[in-house]
Amino acid sequence: MSSSAASTSAQTIDDAEIDRILNSEASLLNREQEVMRVIGAFKLNPYEVLELNWMPSATVTESDIHKNYRKKSLLIHPDKLKHDRGIEAFDLLKKAETELLIPEKRKALDETIGDARMLVLRELGLVRTLPDDDENLVKLKPDLKERVRVKTKEILIDDELRRRRVMKMTMIAEGAEAKRVEDSIEKRKRKVEDDKRWEDTREDRVTDWRSFQKGGKKKKPKIQVLG
User: Fold this and answer.
1) pLDDT tens per residue across span 146-203
2) 47 CB contacts (<8 Å, ≥6 apart)?
3) Total-model pTM
4) Are the C-beta atoms of 41 and 48 separated by less than 8 Å?
């Protein structure tokens, strides 16, 4: 092989190795970026976590949910990516998929998103029946999808805060009730102990009373007056 051919071959190998390294680094960067995207997504909206179209006009199927979860979970699987928050992001993807596959939860979320869209249109002075591709909506900046996302987030946060307040008040009420029951039980317990103590000392009280009756009252000595 001539020196020229050898040089060309070496150059080809070097270029291939460089491409492999660059592709590997790009893949790693994409994986790390996906982890941070999932971590930064709004957790109460599983559509956002899985990066699915949350608009009411979208027709997201269960198959779409499975496919998106599989694609993203393989991308950041802890066995393939060593990242401080990789497991957390992986778990969030699974949680989002699970919630969207529960009919009741998805129905409630879809209704919330529908309400958010209606509120956005009301704030814009537009009728709620306008399709997403209406010219009045297409030219919006920020676009309709982003506005609905923000409004949905506001509603979900309000709902979550309300839920937590109710839970807190319930816990306080349950705690107060538990304390009342505990005090009532303790009071009954003390009464039982007092009654038992009274019964246990009955013979002693009778004996003391009989002894007192037999002895009678002692007369006070008369004081003699001198003079």
Assistant:
1) 999 999 999 999 999 999 999 888 888 888 777 878 888 888 888 888 778 777 777 7
2) 53, 54, 60, 96, 100, 109, 113
3) 0.66
4) yes
